[in-house]
Protein 1
Amino acid sequence: MFSRIALFLLTNFAVLALASVVMSLLRVNSSQMSGMLVFAAIFGFGGSLISLLTSKFMAKRATGAQVITEPRNHTERWLLETVRRQAQAAGIGMPEVAVYDGPEINAFATGANRNNALVAVSTGLLQNMSEDEAEAVLGHEIAHVANGDMVTMALLQGVLNTFVIVLARVVGGIVDSAISGNRDSGRGFAYYIIVFVLEMVFGLFATMIAMWFSRHREFRADDGGARLAGRNKMIAALERLSLNQGQSTLPSQVQAFGIAGGVGEGLRKLFLSHPPLTERIAALRSANATAA
């Protein structure tokens, strides 16, 4: 936990320092700089951290996931035993295990602490996957937790949010001054329109960066699932997903941490949180061939 706090503080200082350098190079008025940086940091990181800290509660509420406290049948006992074994192998605390009602084959993990996370599976997964395939999916989600992906994504989103806020205002000020002929008459209505538009544009690029990292993180989680459950089981699980692939119905706040993602072509692929299943399967097979 201490290392996570240290990482957060170091990230904040690094973001503020870099933003300060950028604003100095762009000759932003120093009297405006400190207030803008504080504003950007608060709003840039605030939403991400609140989402992270409340992620378990919100995920349960959004999906209707029911945490298994006392297993009522063989399936629930198997789920708890499998997650417990994989968590021990990954060196993390036992997560809460839940089941949510959903026709699609999917699962997700979330939580602000790798030793106090939540792993949930859909009823569709339990009905349509073998135990070997489901074991691999659980390993994938445990790998997300062990890798600290939820915290890393929150920090990355905070960094991106901060730069979007700062750059939109810096560039907006420059454009507004150029339009007004550098007249020092304060910020007009046009400035706020320009900033709003720039935040939308820069926000799209920020989303592309966040989704690129999310796709990279899925390959790592697949590899982690392969180590915990077996590479052939992980490949079989992804192949099963490819046969039943559709648009994810998970709420947006946990969609990036599901085993399955959306499908898209062209530019839309830049905004997807998951790489194509064919690429994920090919990566595992390539690693399998290398290991052999």
Protein 2
Amino acid sequence: MLLYVALHSKSGLSVQDVLAKLEYYCAYQERCHAEVWQKLQEFTLLSQEKDEIIVALIQKNFLNEERFALVFAQSKFHQKKWGKIRIKNELKSRQVNELLIQKALKTIPSETYESTFEQLASQNWESIRETNLLKKKKKFCDFLARKGWEHSRIMDWLHEQNV
């Protein structure tokens, strides 16, 4: 690998300096390849130098797409209570491989997924202060759909509640 110390006129940073900045960027928080590539665009480097930096980050284990997908799925599910549809769409928008997306979604335990949905659905249903039942159902469904929960799951919950 050829990482040389050549200064670039516009950014004033060497390839090594850019690599160090991106190592810090990746160490601060898990990143996907697309995010790192976008960050690289801020620096005036040759295409070959950008490729070399990406390779160096992967070799030093600062950049790992599988690890990113696993951490992303777990954190969005536990912290934001996102459903699998939203997680999948967000990972796709970050250009993560479909196989890695499926692997990440499988790490969410089905019992936890069920109980999280039940808790979120109950909380949301109780919090909606709409007297018109149809409008209340629509607000409820819209909220859970935005969170990425499956339509069939939402409808089953409403049916079970006899509303």
Protein 3
Amino acid sequence: MASRHLSRSIVLQSLYEWDFYNKKPALKDIVERDIKDFGPGLEELDFIYALSTGIESHIDKIDKIIEQAAPEWPIAQISMVDRNVLRIGLFELLYTDKKEVPPKVAINESIELAKTFSGPTSGKFINGVLGTVYKQIENKE
């Protein structure tokens, strides 16, 4: 498994636990434990911390975007895995350097996370939401 993909998987698992327990304990503590458990020897720790802290600091904006892009799915009704996959994908689409993570890579990685960790239709749902947001971004540029 590629280093960045494993890093995203660790962030997803950490976000899931953080979300499950109503954002307690601190996300940073969960991330640190998950790195030890799932990513010993992983070298790109900065990527994990940038992703998790970035999502945490922008979570309200990201969740509003999810609700706008999927109006028939209130945020609380989206499965916890899909909700957190969308948070990762949207953070990468909106807040990261496009040269470091091109939009299509961010979308593809999110779809792969959904296929691995969620249900059989999750990949299509994630693709639909992130594709909608990406088209809106493209139209603004």
Protein 4
Amino acid sequence: MSADTGSFEEIALGYIDVVYRVAVGLCGKSVDADDLVQDTFLKAFERFGMFEQGTNCKSWLLTILRNTWIDRLRHQKVVGNVVSLEDDIIDQAGEVDEDVKLNSSELLERFSDEQIIKALKRLPHEQRLTLLLIDVEQLSQNDVAEIIGVAVGTVKSRVSRGRMELKTRLESYAKEMGLTGGEK
């Protein structure tokens, strides 16, 4: 058992930062992400005997993370959502003027990481996870398709729709905060 523990620590724990970043992106709150990462690594440790050494451990861990996240979402549907009084609800019906045209890099430079993560949290979880894996973790579309269990074409469409939705949300936030249009 100690050899397995040593192998697990050597192979899997090197990816804890990656798993944590993706978990924060999914959960939005570091406390929830901590719990999700802990559950992920516990499940990975329990199943480490089934892991084929020499294969992509990062993908294996992110698959476990995704499945654990889905289990939590299913559980939440049964139990119901707990909404904090401090959580702000953003009006999602806001439209962006046609004359407000920002390229993506200009728009992203105007927002803090926290604001981008907030907008990312508002995306459907399938799009959010796909964008996190492609854009943040720099995984290939083939790896992402394997991790989330869909076809590569589905990954491509989720990335496209997710980026478009994220851009729309950020443009709307920029307008609300006065970052576009009437700037000096």
